[in-house]
Amino acid sequence: MSLLIIASVLLGIIVGKMGILAGFIQYIDLISTLALNLLLFSVGIELGRNKEIWQRLANYGWRIILIPLGVALGTLLGSAFISQAIDLPVNQALAVGAGFGWYSLSGVLLNELVSPELGTIAFLSNVFRELLAVIIIPLVALKFGSLTAVAPGGATSMDTTLPFVNKAAGADIALMAFISGATLTALVPILVPLFVNWPL
Hints:
Layout: H1 2-18, H2 28-49, H3 51-60, H4 66-86, H5 90-97, H6 103-113, H7 116-144, H8 162-169, H9 171-196
């Protein structure tokens, strides 16, 4: 699946460079949105049909929240570590990482709260997180276990990367991914301003 994803991106680059299908450019956003919604609808049908998933989820109880908290902690620790390598203040690196893949909001917030430069860093790093997640989710699930497939997408595991988690790890993990993504999404507008104003 990872190879197919990479091949699709490369094919898209080639088609774009050659100017093939130039007339369809204006419809790409619409097609992408429809395709994503169709994928999410399909995942929803699969989740709704499988009653065992909901029973297993009920058995986890409050412990299910440990998944997004673990993803958040890992992301923030990684951000703090990377800040030393790129000479970025720790609080700003944490604010960028606290986007958890939600590039549109984190980029805009940091553009307004700090500077256009940091907003651009946040936008690009969170876009790259989503793109990288799409590629590595199947590999992560294969090498480290199905539950770890939830982590790479961060906040996007509730929408854009959810179908990839479902395909690589199964419907029960996809449900956990949705909960994790929703939780992380809710944390973004809280943590990004918090870290910006946290003198480190």
